[in-house]
Amino acid sequence: MSCVATPVSIVTAMTDGGLPFGATVSAFSSLSMEPAMVLISLDSRSKTLAAIRESGRFGLNVLGADQEDLATAFAGRSRADKFHGTDWRTDCGLPRISQSPAWVASTVAGLVEGGDHVVILGRVDAAESIVDRAPLVYHRRNFGTHLPHSEKPLEFLS
């Protein structure tokens, strides 16, 4: 699957005790327009997944091409306080990473076990994007970005 380019995001959650959790994911997708839904996938041992199960909500911070350092900082389980030194604030009761080109706040609509991961279906409560920022993508185990060939949308997408 490393040959498939994917967007890089940080999924966040807040426990009932007010502790922020976050994890870098490349498994994120739009799921439905009516109602607006997204899906993400997290390792079943993830502390962020445990916080999402507890709170029933998650935030999705879609990263920009200049945020590779954040993607690396929130990846893996080795760092105890991933938010230390990270510019973030609470939005819709969820941790929101500053300067992320897109933000989605969701309520859990379902959890699906899938091998060693859990797919989380989320109903979108709020969303915001900054159009003029290039995305951070992951391809062949490297970070990069996507630059469009043209600013004109494709006929079948518009």
From TrEMBL:
It comes from the Bacteria. Gene3D superfamilies: Electron Transport, Fmn-binding Protein, Chain A. Keywords: Oxidoreductase. Residues 1-145 form the Flavin reductase like domain. One of its GO terms (molecular function) is oxidoreductase activity. InterPro entries: Flavin_Rdtase-like_dom (IPR002563), NADH-dep_flavin_reductase (IPR050268), Split_barrel_FMN-bd (IPR012349). Pfam families: Flavin_Reduct (PF01613). Its EC number is 1.-.-.-. SMART domains: Flavin_Reduct. The keyword S-adenosyl-L-methionine does not apply. Belongs to the non-flavoprotein flavin reductase family. This is Flavin reductase family protein. It comes from Streptacidiphilus cavernicola.
